[in-house]
Amino acid sequence: MAIGATASPTHRAVCTDVPCLLLLTLTVCCASTFTIIVFSLGDIAWLQGGWDYHGRVCGVHVDQWSRPFIFWPFPSEPGVGLCVEHCPSPEETSSAVTWVPKVDSAKIESARDDLNATLSITTRLLEVPVYATVPALGRFCLPTAGINRSAQP
Predict the structure, then answer these.
(1) How far apart are CA 82 and CA 61, in angstroms?
(2) pLDDT of 24-50, one tens digit each?
(3) pLDDT tens for residues 76-115?
(4) Which of 2, 14, 59, 130 could tie 96 with a disulfide, CB 3.0–4.6 Å?
(5) CB–CB of 132/89 below 8 Å?
(6) In 10 A of CB 77, how many CB atoms?
(7) Under 8 Å CB-to-CB from 69, ≥6 apart: which residues?
């Protein structure tokens, strides 16, 4: 068809509204179902604060109510966090240390019947010097400027 020409009366446009409406309805239903599942099975506390290496949410979990801040002895390892009452200040860090568990080895042995297994984990506690931090967002202890804690013992 040339530019400026009109469509012939025998040419009919295809209606795409109905398939698009069906696709939109399906998408809304799937999103609603996903939202309901997430809110019924999920735990919003995981979004409210950091969690320590035991998976306890700082300031929310029963054992951690008095420790709302998360402190990372090794900032390069976010999975090794400690819940603390307050962020370490420069005055507190001159002789302060904390203890962090470190896994040395793990071994799995299966039984003769292949139905049971034994897991052996060897851990030790590392003495880690505490560095100065500042509180951020009411729940995180972030290193103060000029502190390089990327090196690990």
Answers:
(1) 13
(2) 999 999 999 999 998 888 877 777 778
(3) 777 788 888 988 887 777 667 777 777 777 788 887 777 7
(4) 130
(5) yes
(6) 13
(7) 50, 58, 59, 83, 84, 85, 86, 87, 135, 139, 140, 141
pTM (2 d.p.): 0.57
- Retrieve residue 76's tokens: 């390069």
Which of 130, 123, 127, 124 has the alpha carbon at shortest distance from 73?
130
> At residue 56, what is the residue type?
R
3-state secondary structure the chain: CCCCCCCCCCCCCCCCHHHHHHHHHHHHHHHHHHHHHHHHHCCCHHHHCCECCCCCECCCCHHHCCCCEEECCCCCCCCCCEEECCCCCHHHCCCCEEEEEEEEEEEEEECCCCCCEEEEEEEEEEEEECCCEEEECCCEEEECCCCCCCCCC
